[in-house]
Write a structure and sequence with these properties.
alpha+beta, 4 helices, GMP Synthetase, Chain A, domain 3, 3-stranded mixed beta sheet, 47% helix, 17% strand
Length: 121
């Protein structure tokens, strides 16, 4: 009798699920949500909890549109979750919590600081 020794690691499974959900959310935003407040919003990351009931969804957009984009996403959250449920082969769609990903702005701030420095030769 052959024993299956290849078992997936739980952390790897969650990372795959994170990425799968990120891709689906990105497609839904572009193709299914017609709210101008969420135009030019990018899904930068998703963190699912261990039992896949809650997804923290990180987004990026222009700095002056943060509040407007979050309002649009929160307004469409029910529809987005319904579309996620149809797209995924999971028992339940996770609750979605949208927030701004500050890493993009932080990276731009660091770039500006570096470029403004004058290094003597």
């Amino acid at each position: 009798m052959t024993r299956n020794t290849h078992q997936s690691h739980p952390k790897t499974d969650i990372r795959k699920s994170d990425e799968q959900l990120r891709e689906i959310l990105a497609i839904i935003l572009v193709k299914e949500i017609n709210d101008p407040r969420v135009e030019f919003v990018t899904i930068t990351g998703v963190d699912l909890n261990k039992d896949r009931t809650i997804a923290d969804v990180y987004v990026s957009t222009e700095k002056d549109r943060y509040d407007e984009a979050l309002a649009g996403l929160r307004s469409a959250k029910g529809r987005i979750r319904s579309l996620v449920a149809k797209a995924l082969d999971w028992r339940d769609a996770p609750k979605l919590r949208f927030s701004i990903d500050p890493s993009i702005d932080e990276g731009e701030r660091i770039d500006r600081a570096i470029l403004s420095e004058h290094v003597p030769e």
